[in-house]
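#struct-help
A.M.: can someone run this one for me? Single chain, 331 residues.
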Amino acid sequence: MGKDELRYEQITKFFDLAIEMQSKPAGMTIEEIQNYMNVSLRTARRVVAALRGLETHCIDVLGNDGRKYRYGFVRPYMNSFITFSNEEIANLELLLKNEKNNEQIKNELKKTIKSIKAINNKKPQYDVVKDNLELILQTEGYAVRQIPKCTINPENVVKLRDAIMNNRKISCFYENKKGEKKKRILFPLGFLYGVQKTYLIARMDKKGDDEITFLVHKLTDIEILNETFDKKGFDLNAYAQKSFGIYHDEIINVKLLFNKEVADAVLQYEFHPTQQMKQKKDGSVEVTFSASGKNEMLWHIFTWGTNCKIIRPKSLINEYKTMLKDTLNNY
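D.P.: on it. Structure tokens below:
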């Protein structure tokens, strides 16, 4: 093998390792890097040192389990280098063509192929950027969300993600409001991010097809089981849009009236995907929407102070009055 071929092979190994490292949200240990590259432990350490020494500072320690450091990308630097060949896409389309029995697998393959073709198209997609602008800015290091939040074990998130992607049941312990930990078998479906907390949406055998929310930071001893489950067409976006926030209960038709003093802010605000806005002659703004999650509606309305008034439903008005009285009784 000539010097140029040897140099090319080394560069290819580096690229392969970089892509492998970026695909691991929790990063890789030195030993895992050694096994992946099939090199000595000393060489693996030199590779990590070389990657960490790059001017872009793209590789760093992502965490440790008390004994071993895990190294990985602090931002998705490799995205622009990842492409799919026509042969790879053709192989997936062949799998789709040959799949005769499982309708869910066929639908998932169609979505996967569509996503891959979209990734291969390097033209910017305005809607994708618009919907994920905050996430993009954070991953690029240009934005930080500074709020009090619950600490989550990243290894648990990785396990839950794997279970969601592969339709696998999990075994775990969950701490209830009384502080009691009980073992549960869950069918994980997706995550919902609240203002301060992260939630897992899942089903349970005893609850049938009903979706339940679990606080991720209260899930412990998570194990991915060999049993799979049927998501039954679950759509995370459709599920999220039924509620004002995280919690789901009865869907109600809401009308709010905002004073003219905050009209400019209200007109640029998205309260809910179903919202309709109307500015009145006096400058005030009516906002109507249909959603569940009354508690979170009340918490949000409270942040507008005297600039917001609930017009309907009557039940929401009464609950808001009770909340305000209970709050005053604290002082």
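A.M.: thanks! The longest strand covers residues 181-193.
D.P.: also worth noting: Confidence is low (pLDDT under 50) at residues 122-126.
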